[in-house]
Amino acid sequence: MAVAADGSTLITPAYWAEACKTLAKRDRVMKRLIPQHGSACLESRGDAFTTLARSIVGQQISVKAAQSVWDRFAALAPELDAEQVLRLRIGDMRAAGLSARKVEYLVDLALHFSEKKLNEADWTAMDDEAIIAQLVAIRGIGRWTAEMFLIFHLLRPNVLPLDDAGLIKGISHNYFSGEPVSRSDMREVAQAWQPYCSVATWYLWRSLSPLPVAY
């Protein structure tokens, strides 16, 4: 475990070392990328609401912009949990840089947690697709956001977010010399990553930016 800048505990995956060893053995790009990042690895903040909220804030904007908006949003309350979000004023949330739609999504997410509509206790036993189906029923959460949740909160090892712009760019840059790639190209490349697609995806994100992706 590690500690984040905000004082929260970060949880790291037990499978990371084995995943790196497997990926480096099977994939020439991973063999090159993995040693470049030392002991850094995927980290979970251990809080489902925060992870989903950060994913909503980060939709369709850069990692840097998302962090900037999140910092302003988080400054609105001492502990940004579901109950606190429901107490915030819409104008203050908009002033933090959130669009009207993202404000609506965050309020709906907070209501789901406040009213205990999500079966958090069941997630451990549920497969990835079942969890995705439950999450996409919430306004503002599509498949991409649900996949980020699987990776960053539940630390699921084998998630392949085919609609993620960073993954698309990472595969294009590292495997196809910058040429456009199709979903079938991505799936073909990812065959060598099984059962650690989440780990390979994380390293491709890092290949594009030294700033670790975090939700």
Automatic annotation (TrEMBL):
<dbReference type="Pfam" id="PF00730">
    <property type="entry name" value="HhH-GPD"/>
</dbReference>
<dbReference type="GO" id="GO:0043916">
    <property type="term" value="F:DNA-7-methylguanine glycosylase activity"/>
</dbReference>
<protein>
    <recommendedName>
        <fullName>DNA-3-methyladenine glycosylase II</fullName>
        <ecNumber>3.2.2.21</ecNumber>
    </recommendedName>
</protein>
<dbReference type="GO" id="GO:0032993">
    <property type="term" value="C:protein-DNA complex"/>
</dbReference>
<dbReference type="InterPro" id="IPR051912">
    <property type="entry name" value="Alkylbase_DNA_Glycosylase/TA"/>
</dbReference>
<dbReference type="InterPro" id="IPR011257">
    <property type="entry name" value="DNA_glycosylase"/>
</dbReference>
<comment type="similarity">
    <text>Belongs to the alkylbase DNA glycosidase AlkA family.</text>
</comment>
<keyword id="KW-0227">DNA damage</keyword>
<keyword id="KW-0234">DNA repair</keyword>
<dbReference type="GO" id="GO:0008725">
    <property type="term" value="F:DNA-3-methyladenine glycosylase activity"/>
</dbReference>
<feature type="domain" description="HhH-GPD">
    <location>
        <begin position="57"/>
        <end position="209"/>
    </location>
</feature>
<dbReference type="GO" id="GO:0006307">
    <property type="term" value="P:DNA alkylation repair"/>
</dbReference>
<dbReference type="InterPro" id="IPR003265">
    <property type="entry name" value="HhH-GPD_domain"/>
</dbReference>
<dbReference type="GO" id="GO:0032131">
    <property type="term" value="F:alkylated DNA binding"/>
</dbReference>
<dbReference type="GO" id="GO:0006285">
    <property type="term" value="P:base-excision repair, AP site formation"/>
</dbReference>
